[in-house]
Amino acid sequence: MSRKFFVGGNWKMNGDKKSLGELIQTMNGGKVDPNVEVVCGAPSIYLDFARSKLDAKFGVAAQNCYKVPKGAFTGEISPAMIKDCGVNWVILGHSERRHVFGESDELIGQKTAHALESGLGVIACIGEKLDEREGGITEKVVFAQTKVIADNVKDWSKVVLAYEPVWAIGTGKTASPQQAQEVHEKLREWLKTNVSEAVANSVRIIYGGSVTGGTCKELASQKDVDGFLVGGASLKPEFIDIINAKA
């Protein structure tokens, strides 16, 4: 089964209306491969702005949300609010949410369940830290993270799994195409065993961690790499080159 290539841009806490407006103009005017699904993760305060300015062919994602529709949760946003802005995706479990803000596997699972129940697509992030890779427990860590997500998913067609080795995010170190393929393949095997063969074959597993115009083509050629979650490079014109990695 062919899986539609998926490229997410995670703008993180970057940009203002001027710089993001320029980036959006570049994207709207760029030649992009029509066979690629593209979603831009905007800061929550700019979700409305991004959705109103970006061409309809591009999706928009929130970078986080909470696990209930509304209430006394100062500083949080809900899937209902995200959808009200015309936005259809959310990034959950990013390593910065896990390791900078202390989000637990359990909370990320609860958020995933609520986002999916609310009709959002979820880009669910998993990945090991450097000491975990060096300790030889990469699989143990990513399988445990994946299990908590899987336990909260009923409809896998709305989920993209993003494998992001934490040691490669924003460090300039990229997992080699072979390292990425190895983990993606093992994740697919885990899904086959623990969810179903159909889900394992259809779900998109994308790679994140210092993806650039220079590294994207070889990564994209790996059998089980179905796209990217791009950080810093998604704020630059080279994002177009990354979208077109398979072209």
TrEMBL record:
It is an enzyme of class 5 (isomerase). GO terms for molecular function: methylglyoxal synthase activity; triose-phosphate isomerase activity. The keyword Mitochondrion does not apply. It catalyses: dihydroxyacetone phosphate = methylglyoxal + phosphate; D-glyceraldehyde 3-phosphate = dihydroxyacetone phosphate. InterPro entries: Aldolase_TIM, TIM_sf, TrioseP_Isoase_bac/euk, Triosephosphate_isomerase, Triosephosphate_isomerase_AS. It comes from the Eukaryota. Its EC number is 5.3.1.1. GO terms for biological process: gluconeogenesis; glyceraldehyde-3-phosphate biosynthetic process; glycerol catabolic process; glycolytic process. GO terms for cellular component: cytosol. Pathway: Carbohydrate degradation; glycolysis; D-glyceraldehyde 3-phosphate from glycerone phosphate: step 1/1; Carbohydrate biosynthesis; gluconeogenesis. Pfam families: TIM. The keyword Transcription does not apply. Keywords: Gluconeogenesis, Glycolysis, Isomerase, Lyase. Homodimer. Triosephosphate isomerase is an extremely efficient metabolic enzyme that catalyzes the interconversion between dihydroxyacetone phosphate (DHAP) and D-glyceraldehyde-3-phosphate (G3P) in glycolysis and gluconeogenesis. It is also responsible for the non-negligible production of methylglyoxal a reactive cytotoxic side-product that modifies and can alter proteins, DNA and lipids. PANTHER family: TRIOSEPHOSPHATE ISOMERASE, TRIOSEPHOSPHATE ISOMERASE B. HAMAP family: TIM_B. Belongs to the triosephosphate isomerase family. This is Triosephosphate isomerase. It comes from Lates japonicus.
